[in-house]
Automatic annotation (TrEMBL):
Record has Glycoprotein as a keyword: no
Biased composition, class Low complexity, residue ranges: 358-369
Biased composition (Basic and acidic residues): 408-427
Composition-biased stretches (Acidic residues): 370-383
The VWFA domain, residue ranges: 523-701
Domain of life: Bacteria
SMART domains, per database record: VWA
Species in which this protein is naturally found: Nocardiopsis tropica
Region Disordered: start-end pairs: 70-92, 338-465
UniProt cross-references to Gene3D superfamilies, sorted A to Z: Magnesium chelatase subunit I, C-Terminal domain (1.10.8.80), P-loop containing nucleotide triphosphate hydrolases (3.40.50.300), von Willebrand factor, type A domain (3.40.50.410)
InterPro entries: BchD/ChlD_VWA, ChlI/MoxR_AAA_lid, Mg-chelatase_DI-like, Mg_chelatse_chII-like_cat_dom, P-loop_NTPase, VWF_A, vWFA_dom_sf
UniProt record similarity statement: Belongs to the Mg-chelatase subunits D/I family.
Protein name per UniProt: Mg-protoporphyrin IX chelatase
Cross-referenced PROSITE patterns: VWFA (PS50234)
Amino acid sequence: MRTSHYPFSAIVGCDAEPLDDLGLALVLASVSPEIGGVLVRGQKGTAKSTAVRALAPLLPPVEVYRGDRFSVDPADPAQESPDGPFPPGTAVERRPVRLVELPVGATEDRVLGSLHLEQALTHGRVAYEPGLLARGHRGLLYVDEVNLLHDHLVDLLLDAAATGRVTVERDGFSVEHAARFLLIGTMNPEEGELRPQLLDRFGLTVEVAAPSDPAARVEVVRRRMAYDADAAAFSERYDRAEKALAERIAAARETARRARLSDAALLKIAQVCAAFEVDGLRADIVTARTALAHAAWEGRTSVSLADIRRAALLALPHRRRRNPFDAPGLDEELLDRVLGDEEPPPDGPEPPGGSDGPTGSDDPASPADDGGDGGDGAPEDADGAPSRPPEAGAGEPDRSSVPPRGPENAREAEAPRDRGDAERDGAGPEPTAGTTVGAGAPYRPRTFTARGTGTGADGRRSRALGARGRRIGAAPPGGGSGGPLHLVETVRAAASRPHGGGRIGLLPGDLRVAVREGQESNLVLFCVDASGSMAARKRMGEVKTAILSLLLDAYRRRDKVGLVTFRGTAADLVLPPTRSVDTAAARLDALPAGGRTPLAEGLLEAARVLRRERLRDPRQRPLLVLVTDGRATGGRGAVDRSLQAADHVAGLGVATVVVDGESGPLRLGLAAALAARMGAEHLPVDEVSADALGNAVRERAA
């Protein structure tokens, strides 16, 4: 088996038994494509893409009709090709399984297919040119950096994965074809999380990291350097191992057709899924299929506890994570307790029909039969995520799924303390200066969008015109859409001119570019008064929880979130605009409170951050959230300087929300006056709860 790629068996971890998680997940998905694909998560430089690209040559070849661009299975009469029908006796050929790569920047036309321009321009015929989904039928569809895939492409993948078919109605033609593929995605979690619906479509997930053992790292480098020096000679050294692995995969596919899952084993799988409180029933189905594939890989036709354990470790982690703050992986001690030590007994005589086993087809099956998963048919929120019924005890966060926060230990502060304000406000005793108040469990925020249509960077929140997204029309170039050339509309514009019955000629005035509507990201900058007057434990905890929740929402939607705090004598940018949720959570937990109120310094620091971000990306629309009671007690002339700073921020033209931290029977109305001076929206303290603060931000983005 001569290869020009890096051999699968040469990857450290995939070169010996037992295979590591990455190698095993890819192999099991190949043995039983009905599992639904693999998501590989890890930092850059961990052989994610190398392993995926090395997998395709190991898979058994497929039979197709000669000349069929849609690769339908000749043995399956239910599959129809737009290139057909194929009469009896049509030549059938065997070809290797395709690895089709879907680029993050692919257009909708490239994914679904489009008008065959050569046929249209030279022969005047409307013909369909298949896209990547058609090419990936009965093969591997690989998406590198899948978490960066634009939402409109995610929707296309979801539709194809759910139905196993693609329907194209555009540009004067109507085409429907099969699209069943083994979906494999790789991603770096630091760059953002996946949309929940797409995440659930991956049957298995694997976390990969660079080896910490120096000897293993040395071996990785040695092999890579040898491959780069002479790829052919290096591949030849692993030729025998590659052949053996390919033969074992083919044999495991045959064994999987005979493998059966006993009722006792199925009950054990259900107990495991229930114990980890996974959503829906797709987890049970995928775990069962993975356990069968693992048994077949080991050469057995009955499922053991070891098979169920390995299947659960691969199929459940991404289904039990509620948000990126949850630690990845499973509690293996809990898993072992649920599984117990007693092997599941086999059933009696084999039932006719054998509905438990795989379908026996070499083609990746559509997961459309996963009817009871509770995911596809559930109602969806405005942002497309499946809604869930309220859980019992929703008022108390599940500490098993939320990482513990830092201790609320008192710290000595260098700044003087502004005494008595919190006690007079009735919000509880003020902590000592420098006290660190932890945030509560983050909640799911309601979606907010910027009004109108922007032109910002690709994101998942506000409407925007750009080079990506859904095509909504065409316009002459120079209109600001920035879209690619729209060939169909260009030809149509040329054809609409009188041409005397001759060939159509193109003129500069005929050119049309595509106008696409997608979504953009936004910047939400919090400027928080962390002085003694705002340091009441409950109030600061609510503010932190709201920021943490909005950060989590922004992380999923590719927004930027920053945090400026002011206390004592200065303001600090404790969280520069970022999308890293782990760093943000750590810094929010460590945020202290107490001391005087340098309001002017806080406003000026926020203005500096906004100006800098505007220079970096003028198209990104910001929102400033100022959390303060309006007091200014830091330094000489604090009040006058704060008013001047407020005028400066107002001159930036940034939409601002002032959350008034003042409460109690005696109110000075300083925050309201500050909001009026800044032309900002004023939010009374009665609405400063975690939910109210989130609502204020979501409803006020322009």
